């Protein structure tokens, strides 16, 4: 079938099979039933010659030694596809479809799940940093059975359904398809005497305290990663990670934009016109902001280094103070008289102007 001599070695057999299989593969000959039949014959021949025991029977008894019957083995064997990935994997990309991993038991070790905890901070805590304790409920390895799931002194047994391989192979035509064993769920083991503490799961739920060190300058929605603080893995697998998502409460009057803070302070018309010094609260205490004579409504003053520390860096942002000129809703008789006198000495033409021209009107209000 393969065109090799009786003394051919494994490499010569594999090369001959590869050449013929590529030539007669159904994907390359979609409308040629004869090519498909030839491909099956080549695959059967390789399955026999690639197995030392079957090859020995074939050398001794011929085809009768490997055919159905008292001395045979029932024809085609799907173990040929244990090497199929090595031969055709790069060309056709069949991979595990043909059972390339079928002869190997699947590793039981699995990584644990990641966890998320949300931590709410006060506004000042997010700005200056803080150390918090977070309570985390997670699955940890059972200390009684050490994660095996079996009772102390007992051990899991080999799965009788899959023989410990963790997979079942099903032959469809000349293809061999592997599927996870439904009895052991791919572990290859069965727990007959489960651990009384974890009931055979190998893990139990516990609550732990994790210390979270929040750096200065964190923003809303920031995530902090704590490797290995998630749930324990299965059967010795690594633990997952813990993600702590940070949230900051709003401040009574400060608004934050990155490293800068913003607030608004009301002043009277007289203070804006005559100038004054106002006391403004900051996150570090009070500071004095000088309001010059003729200050216009909406003017913003910058107070350097009174903002938020730069995250993982140096320096701080600034505090921006916007002044809002307060117009009284009720006036005393004397206040009205004074304002009427002021109105008589000033003149403003009430015509709409573009916003870009508002700055040019400062001189009009200061005359």
Write a brief structural summary.
The protein has 367 residues and is α+β, with helices and mostly antiparallel strands. The protein is 22% helix and 26% strand.
Can you describe what's shown?
The structure is a single chain. The chain has eight helices and 15 strands. The protein is of the alpha+beta class and 367 residues long. It folds into three domains: 10-97, Helix Hairpins (Orthogonal Bundle), CATH 1.10.287.110; 111-151 and 199-250, Sandwich (HSP40/DNAj peptide-binding domain), CATH 2.60.260.20; 255-366, HSP40/DNAj peptide-binding domain (Sandwich). The strands form six sheets. Strands 10-11-15-14 form a four-stranded mixed beta sheet. Strands 1-9-8 form a three-stranded mixed beta sheet. A hairpin with a 2-residue loop joins strand 12 (276-282) and strand 13. Helix 1 runs antiparallel to helix 2. Mean pLDDT is 81; it is low at 68-86, 88-106 and 360-367.
Helical stretch count?
A: 8
Q: Total domains, how many? A: 3
Taking the alpha carbons of the first and last residues, their distance comes to 110 Å
Side-by-side strand order of the widest sheet: 10-11-15-14
Strand content: 25-35%
């Amino acid at each position: 079938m393969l065109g090799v001599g009786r003394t051919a070695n494994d490499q010569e057999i594999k090369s001959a099979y590869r050449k013929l299989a590529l030539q007669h593969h159904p994907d390359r000959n979609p409308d040629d039933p004869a090519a498909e039949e030839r491909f099956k014959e080549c695959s059967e021949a390789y399955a026999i010659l690639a197995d030392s025991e079957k090859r020995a029977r074939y050398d001794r008894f011929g085809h009768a030694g490997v055919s159905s019957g008292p001395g045979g083995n029932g024809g085609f064997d799907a173990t040929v596809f244990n090497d199929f990935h090595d031969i055709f994997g790069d060309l056709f990309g069949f991979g595990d479809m043909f059972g390339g991993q079928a002869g190997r038991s699947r590793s039981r070790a699995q990584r644990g799940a990641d966890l998320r905890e949300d931590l709410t901070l006060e506004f000042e805590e997010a700005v200056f940093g803080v150390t918090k304790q977070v309570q985390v409920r997670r699955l940890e390895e059972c200390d009684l059975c050490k994660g095996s799931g079996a009772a102390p002194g007992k051990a899991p047994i080999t799965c009788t359904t899959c023989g410990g391989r963790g997979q079942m192979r099903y032959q469809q035509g000349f293809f061999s398809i592997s599927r996870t064993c439904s009895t052991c769920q791919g572990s290859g083991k069965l727990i007959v005497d489960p651990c009384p503490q974890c009931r055979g799961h190998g893990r139990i739920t516990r609550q732990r305290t994790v210390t979270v060190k929040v750096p200065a300058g964190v923003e809303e929605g920031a995530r902090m990663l704590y490797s290995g603080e998630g749930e324990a893995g299965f059967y010795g697998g690594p633990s997952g990670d813990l993600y702590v998502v940070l949230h900051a409460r709003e401040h009574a009057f400060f608004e934050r934009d990155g490293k800068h803070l913003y607030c608004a302070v009301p002043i009277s018309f007289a203070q804006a016109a005559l100038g004054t010094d106002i006391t403004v609260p900051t996150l570090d205490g009070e500071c004095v902001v000088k309001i010059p004579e003729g200050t216009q409504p909406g003017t913003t003053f910058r107070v350097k280094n009174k903002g938020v520390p730069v995250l993982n860096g140096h320096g701080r942002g600034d505090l921006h103070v916007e002044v809002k000129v307060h117009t009284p809703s009720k006036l005393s008789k004397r206040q009205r008289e004074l304002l009427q006198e002021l109105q008589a000495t000033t003149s403003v033409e009430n015509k709409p102007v573009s916003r870009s021209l508002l700055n040019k009107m400062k001189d009009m209000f200061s005359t």
